[in-house]
Amino acid sequence: MTRDRPTETDARTEAGADSTPGTRPATDGGDAAAGADAVALDPWGSSTVSDYRKLFEEFGIEEFDDALPEVPEPHYLMRRGVIFGHRDYRPIAAAMRDGGEFAVLSGFMPTGDPHVGHKLVFDEIIWHQERGADAYGLIADLEAHSARGLPWDEIDEHARDYLLSLLALGFDADEGTLYRQSDNRELQDLAFELGSKARFSEFEAIYGFDGETSVSHMQSVVTQMADILYPQLDGPKPTVIPVGPDQDPHVRLARDLAAKMRFFKVTEAYASFEADALERDVIAEAHRTLSVEASGGSEASEGPGERGGTDSVRCEDAAAWLESGEFDRSRLESDGVGVSEAVVESAVSKLDAAGKEPLRPRVRFLDRNATESAFEALIDAVEGEKRVFEGHVDAFDLSREAAEELAREVEIDEGGYGFLPPSSIYHRFMTGLTGGKMSSSVPASHISLLDDPEDGYDKVKSATTGGRETAELQRELGGEADKCPVYELYAYLLAGDDDEFAKEVYDECVGGERLCGDCKEQAARLMREFLEDHREKREEAEAVLADLDIDLDSNRRGVAGE
Ligand code: TRP
Ligand code: SF4
Fold it and tell me: Are 406 and 448 in a shared domain?
């Protein structure tokens, strides 16, 4: 499989209808070229994200704004909508609020210079570290070698540059962990274990791998899966992976593998047979209605662990009720549960087969990968009324949460990992200074963190803008900050934590008070200052890096892959 060389993908889309002007870099969502390639999330391609909204609809990424109120003192990239999406971020927000244990991890492919786009991720790692996370930064050198074809000497050099910039920006190496994939034996062991739950057919479906894909490339995928779960090797904890949305396929696979590695799966059930989630909704509805009737109208217990009422509803009664005209689907549908004929039919036939068995809510522990001794230990550990079946245990006096916790405890005692599914946050890609994509292979399109401060100044000065043809027009119509890579630089980087300043630039621009020449001059100076400061801090970081146990002279032999 041949894929393009690395390119930072571009991102020119709407920040959303509720975006606050001046604090949110809203860019054009409607450009025709953008619609053409729709959404493609390809970690090794040159995919562009043309429409962030589709990521929510098609891939189930959640909007970050929905979780934002739960985050204590959110980062400016969160406040400004640069971090636009997430998976399962709430446990991270909760850990930050309650002082719970959590981790942050991200990885960098050392294929070129670190640039301002990578700075977003560095900052995200550091910010979580400052808020108490166990922080991890890794060099994805196996991936760079196998998927991008980089030779080892170049990898070593770039690896160094990424680490220096991460340290220079504030990563605390005493508290946190930095590693190279190739150098981490524990990681490789975990990758091997995870590989036994990963199927080639999934790689085909997720990544478009085929018979021509190299085995080393596949190994780099399981290695990334191990990266993502690595912080949980010393115990399960919420872990956030800050990345660009092109990495979402990896996150989804890692969440999937985390679940597949579990000894037990906890579900809810109403009778001894297995029902899928949709059938369960239908059965739950029957149970709720019939047990209210049976107890003379008062609301019966809802879930396991708090049973008060009747056990007198039998499976066959529920089947009959579902087939009668009394079953009103609209109630379920108003809860967002679509009830198809086929689902009702299969629920009815399962209920009929169970005959006179009473319907009783319970939590169920399904044996996924448990050893015999782990299964026995679980049976012993379940308190209250329980029933043991081939391959599962039903508990009648446990809540779902208590059951989840118990399953994890037993798993860990018995030598499992007990992984929690990892969380992620996604940031927008930066627009290139020359207008199109920000690309590592087009130096004028990006500002490298290693750029000479004067070059950085010059690049900003010659960037395209969202300005009008003439100063008169600009005064009259205002600039288009939403389409301006220079404004993006302010919002993503130069304004730092200062929302007032970012808003001022925006308002002055769209209000026609700010003209591009002066605006770029100001941005260029700020960029120069930033690069000067960063350069100094990188020099100071040299000593820190030298003290770390990271081999940057790998001396490996090999033929770069792909
Ligand atoms: N695949 C990532 C990239 O293309 C690098 C990477 C490797 C990574 N392991 C990771 C990112 C774990 C996040 C988490 O840049
Ligand atoms: Fe961009 Fe500044 Fe010009 Fe506005 S004034 S379009 S922000 S360069």
Answer: no
Domain containing residue 85: 56-261+421-427
Q: To which residue do tokens 């990885």 refer? A: 107
Ligand nearest to the CA of 250: 1
Are 113 and 195 members of one domain?
yes
* pLDDT given for residue 436 in this prediction: 85
Task: Answer positive or negative: Cα dihedral of 253, 257, 260, 262.
Answer: negative
If you take atom 3 of ligand 2, which residue's CA is the nearest one?
516
Do 135 and 276 have their domain in common? no
CA 464, CA 485: separation in Å to the nearest integer? 7
pLDDT beyond 90 at 9? no
The residue whose CA has the least distance to atom 8 of ligand 2 is 516
Q: What is the mean pLDDT of residues 285-308?
A: 69
Q: Which residue from 464, 465, 507, 508 has its CB within 8 A of the most atoms of ligand 2, so it is best to mutate? A: 465
CA 100 vs CA 71, 239, 454: distances in Å: 14, 12, 44
- Is 36 contained in some domain? no
**Ligand 2 pocket member 12 (CB < 6 A):** no
Q: Give residue-wise pLDDT tens across range 77-119.
A: 999 999 999 999 999 999 999 999 999 999 999 999 999 999 9
Is the shortest distance between the CB of 107 and ligand 1 below 6 Å?
Answer: yes
Spacing, Cα 482 to ligand 2 middle (Å): 9
Residue 558 located in a structural domain: no
Mean pLDDT of 378-386: 97
pTM of the model: 0.89
CA angle 446, 449, 455 (to 5 degrees): 65
Please give the structure tokens belonging to residue 191.
């990758």
**Mean model confidence pLDDT for the chain:** 90
Q: Say how many Å lie between the CA of residue 467 and the centre of ligand 2.
A: 6
Contact 68, 74 (CB under 8 A): yes
The answer, yes or no, to whether residue 229 has pLDDT greater than 60, is yes
Q: Is 423 in the pocket of ligand 1 (CB under 6 A)?
A: no
Q: Ligand nearest 487 Cα, by number?
A: 2
* 243 CB within 6 A, ligand 1: yes
| Whether 277 and 394 share a structural domain | yes
C-alpha–C-alpha distance, residues 225 and 190, integer Å? 9
pLDDT exceeds cutoff 50 at 36: no
Same domain, 405 and 453: no
Determine what percent of the chain is predicted with pLDDT higher than 70.
90
Q: Is the CB of 280 under 6 A from ligand 2?
A: no
